[in-house]
Amino acid sequence: MRRRRRRKKIKRLNHAMKVRTIGTITFIAILFIILAGRLVYFSVFKNGIYEKQVLSQQNYNSVTIPYKRGDILDRNGNTLATSKKLYNLVLEPKNILRTADVRKKVVSALTKYMGLDKDALLSYLKENKDSYYSVYKEDLTYSQVADMKEYMESDAGEDISGVVFSEKYQREYPNKSLASQVIGFVSDNSGTGGIEQYYNSTLSGVDGRRYTYLNEELESDTSIVDPQNGKTVVSTIDSNIQKLAEQRLAAFEKEYGSKGSSILVMNPNNGEVYAMASSTSFNLEDPRNEKNLLTKYKKSEIDKMSEKEKVEAFNEIWKNPIVSNTFEPGSTFKPFTVAAGLEEGILKGDETFICNGYEQIGSNRIHCSHRSGHGRITLSESISLSCNDAIMQIAAKEGKDVFTKYQREFNFGSLTGIDLPGEAKTDTLLHTADKMEDVDLATSSFGQSFNCSMIQMASAFCSLVNGGSYYEPHVVRQLQNDKGSVISNVEPALVKQTVSRDTSDKLKEYMRETVESGTGKKAQLDDYTVGGKTGTAEKIPRSAGTYVVSFCGFAPVEDPQVVVYVVIDEIQKGSQQNTGLTVEIARDVIEGSLKELKVAKSTNQ
C-alpha cells in the first residue's frame, strides 16, 4: 500500500515582514548612494587638497649628516689626530632623466662647476637610468665641490634636482707614525688601541639627519637635526719630546738593532706621560700595510706567514709594549730594596758591606755582577756600583714580610690605572711572603724572579725621587668641546705615599753617585745634575745567555722634572749586557726634554 507524501506548506511573507525587508533594502541603497557621492566629491572636488596633505606626510629623502670625531692634541695644542670632511657626489639618474630640460641643466652645471666630462656623465646616467641613488665620485674635498654647492644654493640653481653631496669624515694623523701606539687608530668609526680606543666614547659623537620632503604646497622643504660632534682630547704628550725619543731609538736600531726597544718619559711630580716611543711603531694612516711589519719581522718571515699569523703579527705591532709587555727589571729595582730598609729603620745610611762576589743561599750560589767581588762598600755604593751581594744582604735583613710589603707599596704586581688599553696584569708574577723561598728573596732583591711592565717601574720610580708621592700615570690632561672650550681638566691623582721625603732624598743622592762615579757615568750632563740606575736582567731560560738592559734616570737631582726609562731587549750587535747604550740614549733624551720644558740649569753642579 503506497503512502502519500505530505508536502510542506510554503510560508509566505506577511505584511509586517514585507515592510521590514523593503525598509532594509532601501536603507542599504541610500547608504550606497551617499558613499558613492562622497567618493565622487573627494575624487573630483577635493582631489588636490588631499593629495597635498598625503604627500606632505611622506618623507621624500633622508640623508645622514655624520658627526666629526673629536681631535687628539698634544699638550701644546699640536694636532696628533683629526677628521677631514670629504664628499661623495651622489646622482639620481631616474630624476635627472625625467625631462630633457632637467637633464640639460644638471649635466651643464656639473660639467661647468665640477669639471666633469660631459660624455662620460651622460653615458653613466643612461647606464643607470632606473637608479634613484648612484655614487658617481667619492672622497672629494671641499674645494672640488664648493662651486657646485654654491650654485645649487643660489636662486639660479634652485631647480637643480637629482644631485646630492653626501658627507663623511676621514681620520687623519698629520705625523703619520709619531706616537702611534699611544694614539691608536680608527677602524669602522671605532678606536683601536691607544687614546682612540680608551677614549672612544669621548671622541665619538652622534650623527645628525637631513630630511627632504614635500610640504602642503607640494614644494620641496628641508628639516635638519644637527649632529653632535665628539669632544677634543688634549693629551699629556709633548710632540717634540716624542720626536726626540723616536729619533734616538731609530738611530740606535739602525746601528745596533734589538728584539725590541722602548723609551718612556714622565713628569715625576704629577704622573703625566711626555713620551712613549717604541721600535715597533707603525703608520697610523695605513695600519694594515705589511710594510709596518718590517719594524719587527724580516721580509722572509713575513712572506712565510699565513693570514692568521699576519693578523697576530699586526696585533703585536699595534700594542703598546710600555704598557702591555712584562719583563724582569733587573738592577733598576735595587733602589726600592734599599728604600724599604731605610723606611723601616733597618738601614741608617752609614752601613758597609763586604762583597766577595757571591752569596750562598742554601745550595744556590748567587753571583754578584762583579764576580771577583767589590770588597768593602758603603750603602750608597751598593746602588752606584750595582752590587748584587750587598743588596742580597740587605734583603735578608729586611726579611720576606718587609720586602714583599714594599714591593706592593710601590705598586708592583698591581695595575697602575693608566688611561690606555691593554695594561699587563702582573699580580700572579709576584711572590707572596708565605710562598717566597730564601732564594726568591735573594734574586727578587736585585730585580729577578718577578716581572713588571715599564709603566709600573717608571711610576714607582717617580715616587722614589719626588718625595714619596705615587701618582696614577696618565696620558690625557684635558677635554674640550668641538669649539675649543674647556669642559674638564684631568687633575693629578695622588694614590699613596710610598716613602718619606727623607728616604727619597737619600735615594736621589745614591743615584746621583751612580751617574757621577758608578755604572751610569755616561748619563752626565754639563748643565744639569743627573741621577739614575742601570739594569741588566738575564732572561729565562738563564742558560740561553740573553739579556734585557735598561736605565732609569732623572734630572735635575735637586728637583726632578723628568724621569726617562730606556729598555732594550736583546741587543743584536755587540754585547747584550751593554747597559752603556741605554745610559747614552737616556742622557740625550733627558737633556732634550729639559730644554724643551725650559727647565732652569742646575746651580750645584
UniProtKB/TrEMBL annotation:
Protein name per UniProt: Stage V sporulation protein D
Annotated family: Belongs to the transpeptidase family.
Domain Penicillin-binding protein transpeptidase: 262-590
Superkingdom of the organism of origin: Bacteria
Cellular component GO terms held in the UniProt record: plasma membrane
Name of the gene encoding the protein in the UniProt record: spoVD_1
Domain Penicillin-binding protein dimerisation: 65-215
Keyword check for Transmembrane: yes
GO terms assigned for molecular function: penicillin binding
InterPro entries per UniProt: Beta-lactam/transpept (IPR050515), Beta-lactam/transpept-like (IPR012338), PBP_dimer (IPR005311), PBP_dimer_sf (IPR036138), PCN-bd_Tpept (IPR001460)
Subcellular location as annotated: Membrane
Keyword Transmembrane helix: yes
Pfam families to which the protein is assigned, alphabetical: PBP_dimer, Transpeptidase
This protein's UniProt keywords: Membrane, Transmembrane, Transmembrane helix
